[in-house]
Amino acid sequence: MKPRKNYRCRPKKSGAAKRQKVLSQIRRLVAAGHDKERLDRMTTVEIRDLLKKAGKKKASKAKPKKAGKTVKAKVKK
Question: What is the spatial distance between Cα 39 and Cα 55, in angstroms, rounded to a whole number?
Fold first, then answer.
C-alpha cells in the first residue's frame, strides 16, 4: 500500500549552478548600465534587489499607446 502523502524536498542547487545564475544576473545589470567593479563587490542578495529595481524602471519607462488614429507628419516638397 502506497502512503497518502509523498514527501519530497526540492533539490538543492549546486554551487556551480548558483554561481552561473549570479553571473548571468550581473551580465544583465551591466547591460542595463551598472558598473561591473561595483557589482563584483556586492552580495548576491544586493544583486537580486538591484534586478528587482531595474525591472520596475523598465516597466515605468514604457509609454502607453494612445487610442485612435495616428497622425502622420506632412512632408513639404
Answer: 17
SS3 string, the chain, reads CCCCCCCCCCCCCCHHHHHHHHHHHHHHHHHCCCCHHHHHCCCHHHHHHHHHHHHHHHHHHCCCCCCCCCCCCCCCC
Instruction: Give the tens place of pLDDT for each residue, 14-63.
Output: 999 999 999 999 999 999 899 999 999 999 999 999 999 877 766 655 55
Q: Residue 30: which residues within 8 A CB-CB, separation 6 or more?
A: 36, 39
Q: How many CB atoms lie within 10 A of CB 50?
A: 19
Domain boundaries, the chain: 15-61
Note if the pTM is more than 0.85: no
The Cα 69–Cα 67 span in angstroms is: 7
